[in-house]
Amino acid sequence: MFRTRYEELCHLIELNKNLNPSSMRNQITNLPDSITPHIENVAKAFENEIKSFSLKMMESMFETKLVDYEFIDCVYEFDRNMFEMVLQTTIDNTYDTIGFQISMLIVRGFKYFLQAIIGYEAILKKLQIDISKHRMKSVKLMKGLEEMVAMEEFSQLSEDPRQRVEKMIDYLKMSMKSVPKSDETGSKTSKKEEAETIYPFLSISRK
Fold first, then answer.
1. I want to staple 90 with a disulfide (CB 3.0 to 4.6 A). Which of 9, 58, 153, 180 is the partner?
2. pTM, to two decimals
């Protein structure tokens, strides 16, 4: 039977849950303690498979601009640390291909604040390679961050994610002060940047 990417991920996650030793003890009485390490090894293997599958699918979504946010949310809700690694790696591997505008547009479509924060951090990391060449992109990134801060729900976040956003904004403000506008490289819009703004080619799946 054919499964969608989202259904395949849900299937792997459900298998992983069933392999949890405490879960198995609820299902099987008198489960020998000697079996626990073997169960944990199999569960770890499933976690690695989920991570590998999630990374492969997410990179494909970014590269093809066919974004399934239900899939992305599922990874996030399963394991936030795993999600952070997968998203950071995805942006790091696809940014040079899809560019700033598309990366930003995908990240702005995320459902949860922390998802977007992780995405913005990954984009900023790419700009930091040579921040002096990306003044306009830095301005757009800072605008996205400031729009997030202005949302009423942002104040309800815990201290850590709020500090992560404030740290990015502070860095961008300082970096832009040190780069005179006249020194900005690529101030004229390139053909590649113009192409990146053709948003109708981005297909987003969000119910």
1. 58
2. 0.76
